[in-house]
Write a structure and sequence with these properties.
single chain, 471 residues, mainly alpha, two-stranded antiparallel sheet, 1% strand
Length: 471
């Protein structure tokens, strides 16, 4: 049989009676510590001034301590059960005190008190800018009009019917801003694609065009949200490093690095290894030779606009350029410009047939002027009478006779000069000097082979004309 368990007293033994003595009295409450009393007084003053017991983080007590930190600590101690009862009672006696450790979410105040301030600010903002203010927008008076607009959109069920009608009446007001932002994003992407398709590069922040700068800023701010679309667009544009070098070359930079870069790009263009966006953009750049080429084109077009026929220099340049086009040394753009210019010259010549200058009749003693045709050799005589008279005279075979005949043929031209018609005077002076020198024997004349060739040609012409006249 098990022995009974031992206890502090013997079993079935009566408890001793309490000793008689004076009755016990309740102890008086201990006073609160000075630091706690100071904080409690500061909390009561804050609650009386603001209507709640949630001080901000920058609220300080008279002794320099942070009131918000002290309030947070006593709430934490209360919830853990380590706050003394007298301190808890003192805190509960403060008007507006609650034991919640977090400040409850305030309800949206869209009543007349805040509406009277926020709605006029919203109206002024939208009338000035035409758009709904963003969340962080602040007007000139310092009012957060963007936050007010956001609260009205998010809590439209708390607005009155009159307030909703007032918002809907605003031009540009939308309840769903996300849909508008998606549409704006789509429109901006389309504008970005169109810009790259026409300019072959991404918009730049330092561009002269304001619209390009705005588009470049949007692309930089939104590059995270449009990363996929932006990567696809970037593949169709030239790199920024290539674009910077291209701008230097287009601005006329003549440094060694730029000139070498231009040479490499021209070689790649001729070899066909240049990518399409690079080729389309590089076709717009013009070096010094290209600039002079286009200047010559503009000069020739200026002649046509002034109603003048191309001179020998311009005609020779056109012939050389047609030869270059046939050899393939001109660019596609230059070949197209040259073809258009050739058409303009042909149309001008058809509309304005060129009249050649009048020449003198070569019959001695005749002062008539002969108008040559537009093409071909001009006639030597003004009519059949002069031609028959010229055929009947003997041919001049000796050099002196030829020089005398040349001088005799210059008599009509000299008479015109004496009359004041000075056109062609330098050429006439050279012809007279050459003929007189031949007569005097001081002109060396052409070389022997050339003299023989000229003599044979002269004899064939004169004998042929005499035979025709004799026959």
């Amino acid at each position: 049989m098990a022995a009974p368990a031992r206890t502090g007293q013997a079993p079935n033994r009566p408890l001793p009676a309490s000793r008689p003595g004076p009755a016990r009295t309740t102890a008086a409450p201990r006073p609160l510590p000075a630091s706690f009393a100071t904080a409690l007084a500061a909390l009561a003053a804050y609650a009386a001034a603001h209507g709640h017991c949630y001080p901000t983080r920058d609220t300080l007590m008279p002794d320099g301590r942070n009131l918000a930190t002290w309030v947070s600590n006593v709430r934490y101690a209360y919830h853990r059960g380590t706050l003394a009862a007298d301190r808890a009672a003192a805190l509960a006696a403060v008007p507006g005190w609650v034991w919640r450790s977090k400040r409850p979410r305030r309800r949206l105040d869209t009543g007349l008190s805040r509406w009277a301030v926020g709605y006029p600010a919203l109206v002024a903002w939208m009338r000035a800018r035409g758009t709904i203010p963003p969340v962080g927008a602040v007007d000139a008076a310092g009012y957060r009009v963007g936050r007010f607009a956001r609260n009205c959109r998010q809590h439209r069920d708390r607005l009155t019917i009159e307030q909703r009608a007032a918002l809907v009446a605003l031009p540009g007001w939308r309840w769903d801003v996300s849909a508008a932002r998606r549409k704006d994003r789509t429109d901006r992407l389309e504008a970005l694609r169109a810009f790259v398709a026409s300019h072959h590069h991404l918009p730049q922040l330092d561009a002269a065009d304001p619209a390009e700068r705005v588009l470049a800023g949007w692309a930089r701010r939104s590059h995270i949200g449009i990363a996929g679309e932006l990567a696809a667009i970037r593949r169709t544009a030239v790199p920024d490093t290539w674009l910077r070098r291209y701008r230097l070359a287009a601005a006329g930079d003549t440094s060694k690095s730029t000139v070498e870069w231009m040479s490499r790009q021209r070689a790649a263009l001729r070899a066909g290894t240049m990518p399409e966006p690079h080729r389309a953009l590089f076709g717009r750049i013009r070096g010094r030779q290209e600039q002079r080429w286009y200047q010559r084109v503009e000069q020739l077009r200026g002649l046509l606009a002034a109603g003048r026929h191309p001179d020998e220099s311009a005609q020779g340049w056109l012939t050389r350029q047609h030869r270059r086009a046939a050899n393939g040394t001109l660019t596609a753009e230059q070949a197209a410009v040259l073809a258009a210019l050739a058409g303009e010259v042909a149309a001008f010549r058809a509309a304005h047939p060129r009249r050649r200058g009048a020449v003198d009749c070569q019959r001695p003693g005749c002062t008539a002027r002969i108008q040559p045709p537009a093409r071909g050799r001009a006639p030597r005589y003004c009519g059949p009478a002069c031609a028959a008279a010229a055929r009947g005279r003997p041919a001049a075979t000796s050099p002196a006779a030829r020089s005398a005949a040349a001088l005799f043929r210059l008599v009509p031209a000299l008479e015109r000069v004496a009359a004041g018609q000075l056109s062609g005077l330098p050429a006439l002076t050279r012809r007279v000097q050459r003929a007189t020198d031949s007569l005097a024997g001081t002109h060396p004349g052409p070389p022997a082979t050339a003299r023989r060739r000229l003599r044979r040609r002269w004899r064939s012409r004169t004998t042929g004309s005499l035979r025709v006249g004799q026959g």
